[in-house]
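Hey, I'm writing a tutorial for new members on how sequence and structure tokens pair up, and I'd like a real worked example in the thread rather than a made-up one. If someone can provide the structure for the chain below, I'll link this post from the tutorial.
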Amino acid sequence: MGADVGHNRDKNFTVHKVKKRIEQVEASIARYLAALERADRQDDDVMEAKTERITEKIERLRRQMRAFKAMERQVEAAADKQVSLTDPDARSMATSGKGTGTVGYNVQFAVDAEHHLIVAHEVSNAGSVRAQLTPMGRKAREAIACPEVTVLADKGYYNRDEVLACKGTGIVPLIPKTHAFDNTGHGRFTTADFAYDVEHDRYTCPAGKHLTKGKVRSDRRQATYIYRNLTSCPTCPLKPRCTPERLKRVKRMAGEEVLEEMQAGLEDMPDAMAIRRQTVEHTFATLKAWMGTTPFLMKRLKNAKTEMALSVLAYNLKRMIKIFGIKPLISAIIS
């Protein structure tokens, strides 16, 4: 589970944001210069006072422009093309809503579904959680000294490479797949309508025909196999509902069977996401309620890590008191 715990985003600058600010100041200067030109054509005292005010505003805007130009150079020189004035380590976090981004830190929790104890946590300034699946899964597995853990996560964690990296590590991820654009809006079949046959390494289309492996495309990361039917596709009566091309081509990437196993696991556990919400989101909401509107009192990543570690310790102690009672817990600690 992740959360963006933030600072003032107006004090955070990226290449795009600085460029946009510069464009806004340039537009304002252009408007005031045009107003100044109009005022200069009039000679009365009112226009003279107005000219003076406009000149002051233009000078103020030019000072802003110099500051933004200096910031532009700082951002370009930064390793990740980002500068935060409130906290040098804070970074812009990805969010789903337009214009709702926050600047701060990303907090990850791995929570035991039975007792709601936080078994692992991490604070980072990574902009998203897409690369956090295997690190957090590994920390959770090591923390509970278990050879295998099932990790329930929301679709924000879905990352093909991360899921494949879990194979053989004792981390079993169950994450809903994020769906890219498909043909459903045009009333055509999607890849989900084509059943894959593992034994014969082929797909069966809605018309009952087989698509077999043909071309292999590869890049530096992984191979992609193309399945098609050279004989049946051109004359198939379902072709208008399938593809506008001469042949329907279904792509299958190397490691696709791992993703299919995960999908089968989700289907076998239909309440997986409900369990995730009841477990992690409740825990996170409790901590956010404790911490209030200013989650981190300290600046810099190392201090935020310490602050969160203390909060997690306090949370776990309160949970264990609730589960065991104070006296049994004290006895367990000192024994």
